[in-house]
Design goal:
homodimer; 318 residues; alpha/beta; Arc Repressor Mutant, subunit A; Rossmann fold; 2 domains; 45% helix; DNA-binding
DNA sequence: TTGCCGGATGGGCATTTGCCCGACCGATGG
DNA sequence: CCATCGGTCGGGCAAATGCCCATCCGGCAA
């Protein structure tokens, strides 16, 4: 079929998509694909591999595995959750993000399919990024996507893992990046920042969000806040000593899930977490390291939804 | 992990789902799955196969091409087509010819690449012209290109959009223009014309063609036959009233895809359309105006192949 | 108890797939 | 003009997969 007669970039991906379709959907063997597309067997293989690598093929398992459903029901019951999904774990890679990303994507897709406007607010983190990658491209101009926290460090550079922009461009919805850095220099400047009109608007959207998806950060030396440079070692040690258990959109909370009254939190510029939220606040979190943080968040009802892995669900219920 | 320890029915599917998950999502090899689930390699394979067979595994191709291939497969299935291609539509210009021209060119290129002789017969129309423009220059002296209908009006002047000549010169193949006008003055003269030796030869070639590419004409006031002056307004109105739905190489057919028994068809000098063709007769057609004509042609099996646009494909399946 | 039957099991093998590697092609720069 | 370099191509081979088939197991009826 077509060689590089047209724009070589796009055609190559198109061919990859075509090969992927023939392989995964139509069930052709790579030999047949090669013949049908007029390329060598190896090229066909490369095209299929590219379709996978570029994330064109999405596999979803449409079966509530009994054990996971049981765990999800138990979690919902025990922690009074509005939303709970448990994805199977690979025993050897129990913290693989793909599983919960797919489960969360399915959940979010349901929201996105609604014809009425939905305000969707997002935190940051690797799990949210993975979630976005699992979503199909859609056209949902009726919804609004808003970030619950900034993606700038104090010096103005951007943090990675910004899910909001990617989500917005993938589903074709208007989006509101968070117009402040993660941290303000001090409490006084923070108040000044929050007076700005654009900020107040974004904060209102966050407060009205129909669903919020957030990550959960642990509080140890591998804490995202520490790794990303927001929380120097002495400060995080101090906080841990004072009982810090976890963090959601940079708000640090203690073992009972209460937002701590500390210097750091007084500088946090993220949208406030609703106390006793009516609309679901769903956390995506899994892994041994995050267990105490998840437990505390559940205990303090900082979250009313949880999407996690089988292994983590088991430990939470133990 | 779990063998058939519990209700054998449900757990078996659960195991299948788990195996499928480990395979497709976590990317395990079947050996690893076997080890993790404590079954033999073959059983793991069977579980994965079952997950697929039971439809637990859903593969989605997140690329415009993917949607097109789904539509093509559905059309092939629904209308029992030998060849079907669906080109992506630009939502802003859904009836642009370029897309289907490229798809058709790819199809034709494959035929042209064959080292054995192929007889290729062509109709007329803008889509066929566009198709030819998309072909690269090649050297295929082994093939034969033949026109299925004339390009002369009754007064001897030529109609535009003659694809045969352009195709022949582009791919360097011998070609046979159709040695008659589009319409004979009446049925008697038509019979006389068809006795000529050269005509009989051309008709044989058309009947033996390994692939035929044709356009489809709609039957309304924008009908190519009317616009090009072959079908004056009173006559076309009359035909529409009698149920004319479309036209292929000037043969007018009704809503069920049956060639109509009418004065016009008795004067048509084009090669006859094969009834229940064995070799593919592929139509290039897209656009809202042509929908009824395409539907009827499919219904009557006047064509066994279709190359169309995404938008048109959707409407045909609706 | 015995024999039969349906379904699951794993050995074994042909096919298919993934991937390394040397060859080749076209663009770029000296 | 040649050297270089990034990228693609296809040969070849080891690993992974699909599947046939002989065997085994448990239930069941004679």
């Amino acid at each position: 079929m077509s060689h590089g007669r047209f724009s070589p970039e796009s055609t190559r991906l198109d061919d990859a998509a075509r090969a992927g379709w023939l392989y995964y959907v139509a069930g052709n063997t790579q030999d047949e694909i090669a013949r049908k597309m007029g390329v060598s067997r190896q090229s066909a293989q490369r095209l299929v591999a590219m379709a996978v690598a570029e994330g064109l093929v999405k596999v979803r398992l449409d079966h509530p595995i009994g054990r996971c459903m049981d765990l999800a029901a138990a979690l919902r019951d025990r922690f009074d959750l509005q939303i709970c999904e448990v994805a199977p774990s690979d025993p050897d890679a129990p913290d693989l993000l793909t599983g919960i990303a797919i489960a969360a994507a399915a959940e979010l897709e349901r929201v996105l399919k609604s014809p009425e406007q939905r305000i969707i607010s997002l935190g940051t983190g690797r799990s949210l990024r993975a979630l976005v990658e699992q979503l199909p491209r859609m056209s949902c101009p009726q919804h609004v996507i808003v970030s619950r926290l900034g993606n700038m460090m104090e010096d103005g550079s951007a943090t990675p893992y910004n899910a909001t922009i990617r989500l917005a461009e993938r589903v074709g919805a208007p989006h509101y990046p968070y117009p402040l850095p993660v941290l303000a220099p001090d409490a006084r400047e923070l108040r000044a920042m929050q007076q700005q009109l654009g900020v107040r608007n974004t904060l209102t959207l966050c407060a009205r969000a129909d669903i919020s998806l957030v990550g959960i950060g642990q509080m140890d030396m591998t804490a995202p806040l520490h790794v990303d440079g927001f929380l120097p070692e002495p400060e995080i040690r101090e906080l841990i000593a004072q009982g810090a258990a976890g963090e959601i959109t940079s708000w640090i909370y203690d073992g009972d899930g209460r937002i701590m009254d500390c210097a750091f939190n007084r500088r946090v510029a993220s949208a406030p977490l609703p106390a006793n939220p009516e609309k679901p606040v769903v956390a995506l979190a899994s892994g041994t390291a995050k267990l105490p943080a998840i437990r505390a968040a559940l205990k303090g009802r900082l979250i009313t939804g949880l999407i996690t892995s089988e292994a983590t669900a088991e430990r939470l219920l133990a």
